[in-house]
Amino acid sequence: MNTIRRFKELGFSLEEIGGLMDSNSQEPSLRLLEAKILQTEASLHQMLLRRDRLQALISSQQKYQIMEKISIQNIPAMTVAYYRGIIPSYNAIGDLCCNVIGPEMARLGCKCPEPGYCYTFEHDKEYKDHDIDFEYCEQVLEAKEDSEIIHFRHNPEIPLAVCMKVYGPYDQLYQSYIDLFAYMEKEGYRMAGAPRACYVDGVWNQTDPQKWLTIIQVPAEKVALLKVPMTNRLSLFCCPNCGNVAITYGKGRMECCGKTLDPIPVKPSELADQPTVTETDGEYLLEYGLPMTKDYYIAAVVAERHDSVQLFRLFPEQSAQVRIPILAGTKIYIVYRQGSRIWATLQK
User: Fold this and answer.
1) Which end of the chain, N or C, is more open, meaning fewer C-beta atoms within 10 Å of its C-beta?
2) CB atoms < 10 A from the CB of 116, how many?
3) Any residues with CB less than 8 A from the CB of 69 and at least 6 apart, and which?
């Protein structure tokens, strides 16, 4: 039974194993083993082709889903009635529109075109989930006399806006903004005005918050993408003696322990290098599956953006995990050390 099980694990059929049992040696010949290797290589080639086709199908579906959510639009010039104030949270928007802004616009005699167009944006320089400096704007056919609550202005045309459809409660918009900014950076768009949230369906016509439809609109301009290999900008160094990890830009040099260090070679990350990512407390927790032993471990994780770089040192026998801020466009380098061999991978 052990012999049968062993040969089944090597890919032999029961008929082939039966033929071996009938022979005197009960061991496959070299010719049969070589044939089995060729058969295995052919199967492996077919499996790799299947994997590549599946990955291409995933990429195609992901691209289609992004195209369904994201579009490039022109926003025409218009006259708007606007309200500015401090709201306790994003969930207060619906009540404010229905019970304060709407009645005051009706009192002033405001007429809105069909279909209506209203949007909000924040004056705070950084994201806040409470006490938000908030402005609500709604398109009107003509300006009326300002009141204490409602004022009027003319908005110029926005030739190009990158837009994303978002379904769900308003307190979930923050992550959608991050995703949209990451898409813009990848596709070569630069923000050219304050992002706005345009409300299509909400508390006024949908009782289920999951059916609320908001369109994020970011005024933008197309810029040329500068395709420079990252290893030509940022250079990583690790001292083989003391384990010190350092960073330079350009063609900088590094010395440690009396020796001039060569830059660490960087290669694209593979599937096995990808971490498990968990969002918690405004940060991403990156957890890597590598056992951290003295013989093989992650020496550092480097998070680089266009305006900053952070280095996280790791050591053998500790958890292979780091926390980084949730910021769009972050590139992650992982520095590995296995004995005297040191290398790095770049996650895109």
Assistant:
1) N
2) 11
3) 164, 165, 166
SS3 content of the chain, % helix, strand, coil (to 5): 30, 35, 35
CA nearest neighbour of 79 among 136, 158, 141: 141
The first and second tokens of residue 78, run together, are 């218009």
User: Using an 8 Å Cβ cutoff, are 230 and 236 in contact?
Assistant: no
Residues 6+ apart with CB under 8 A from 262: 237
Amino acid making up residue 257: C
Q: Which residues of 197-218 are buried (b: 16+ CB within 10 A; e: fewer)?
A: bbbbebbeeeeebeebebbbbb
To which residue do tokens 């950076």 refer?
185
Nearest to 197 by CA among 221, 213, 175, 178: 213
Q: What does each C-alpha distance from 204 to 67, 166, 213, 319, 347 come to in angstroms?
A: 28, 17, 12, 49, 44
Q: Alpha-carbon torsion 166, 172, 173, 178, what sign?
A: negative
Q: Going by DSSP bridges, is the β-strand pair 158-167/70-75 parallel, antiparallel, or unpaired?
A: antiparallel
pLDDT of the chain, 348 residues: tens digit per residue: 888 888 888 888 888 777 776 666 677 777 778 888 888 887 887 888 787 777 766 655 554 454 458 888 888 999 999 999 998 887 788 788 888 999 999 999 999 998 889 898 888 877 777 888 989 999 999 999 999 999 999 999 998 999 999 888 887 788 888 888 888 887 778 888 889 989 888 877 888 888 888 999 999 987 754 444 444 478 888 888 878 888 887 666 788 887 888 888 888 887 777 888 887 666 788 888 888 888 888 999 988 877 678 888 888 878 888 888 776 678 889 999 988 889 999 876
CB atoms within 10 A of CB 80: 19
Q: Which residue has the tokens 């404010």?
A: 96
Closest CA to 183 of 67, 283, 275: 67
**Entry pTM:** 0.46
What domains appear along the chain, each with residue ranges and CATH number? 72-222 (3.20.80.10), 230-347 (2.60.40.730)
